[in-house]
Amino acid sequence: MPHLELVATLEGHQDRVWQASWHPTKTILATCSGDKTVRLWTPISHDNFEQWQCIETLEGAHKRTIRSVDWSPSGNELATASFDATTGIWENDPRDNDWECVATLEGHENEIKSVAWSSTGALLATCSRDKSVWIWEVESDNDFECLSVLQEHTQDVKMVAWHPKSEILASASYDDTIKIWKEDEDDWYCADTLEGHTSTVWSLDFNEEGDQIVSASDDQTLRIWKMYKPDNDQGVMTHNGEATWKTICTLSGFHDRCIYSVSWSKVNGYIASVSGDNSIRIFEKDTEATVNEDEPTYKNIATKKDAHGVYDINGVSWFPTKLHQDWLSTVGDDGLVRIWRVVLD
Amino acid sequence: MSQNLINANPTIYNTKTFVRKETEAEFDDDIEDSIDSQEIFDLIRSISDPEHPLTLEQLNVTQFEHIEVDNQINKILIEFTPTIPHCSMATLIGLCIRVRLLRSLPDRFKVDIRVRKGTHQSEGAVNKQLNDKERVAAALENNHLLEVVNQCLATASLRGAQQVPSN
Q1: Which chain A residues are closer than 8 Å to B135 by Cβ?
Q2: Domain map (residue ranges) of chain B
Q3: Would you identify the CATH topology of the domain B33-156?
Q4: pLDDT higher than 70, residue B1
């Protein structure tokens, strides 16, 4: 049976850790915490992955919890979203290898829950308890222009995630829905609303192709949604010439408390989820059992119970490249960051 | 008293009815006492109501019968009863109970706090908010709100032993 092996435990945060983001190309992990800091971690050497060190602590810019952190696609900047209602943009100065907060984006009325760069790095999205999603355009000299304020969710927006290739945004909300946002001649609009979860949607992630989304909810289920374009072969109804998203698989009965985070590996296709039930679960598409791609079967191939002891696990993310494609990071209420390896034996 | 109270004339209940039952085992230092619903009730019964100089027990907001503890799976469920179905203080009361338990209990417990079924008109919304840890975390970074919570918790350590003087 495949299983999860602990590679390393990273200690340093002084409060619960909310989220982690892997550098797009290097083996560096950024984590953010209730201690109002972001920490950057790397292995001590290239051949010993058991020992990691905190190479940088980004602090001073946020007055409250940093809820979310995301590397820009170039790996030169970091964006941080805080409960203090601001988004920070951090840049590395190569001259002294020092990180500095070079811009603070204001506008949200209260807690920002999530921040994400688009695949090209040209756009940034943020979302907040104020129920809105903001799209920002990245201009030169650390200037950011707000292109749109999207206010169609009826409750807090918990997370935003960009399509891996196109300028399509998905947002997950306390109103139990997911919304898909697209642009038409500088106008951003809601192209679809995904209904099905029966409680808060905490997290979502696209697959490698960007035609499917996995979502995680307080209803203790994961849902896999597939995009159907107009005039699709399957005969799925679409409206107004827009693609429609439909649940093709529901994974229930695995977690027995809120699922806080889900990550879909763009390299090997595995789905990892973490929960308030203290466990990590790994799912893989069962290719033998799947006869119809519109009704796929997924199987739970590995589970790690009490992965952070008795504590909730708040975030999970797969290593983004082939280099360590079997790695994932988890962060918990115990203030720890853990690196795991999926061992297929 | 101010005319703006949400429930100006709450019913006050006799709190003498619940007395902790002490067992032989509790006096034996060699036996580990597990955390039971009596213990949880003691922790929360003397929390002050946000708008009256009375405890949650005196207002019948917290009741021993509405606490479930499962030590095997580390789960605690607390149901509380707002004094009136449109009580806008319900989330604050729930937050006080949550903070009290966060500060008192071992980390292993997962605590669910709910309004007792049928006792509040926004039951679903209140329950959702009270059990959303992100909302709770953000609320506790709000100094004004934290001060209010701390005031309500100032009497919590009485554990039913002595009542807040009522006027």
Answers
A1: 129, 156
A2: 33-156
A3: GMP Synthetase; Chain A, domain 3 (3.30.300)
A4: no
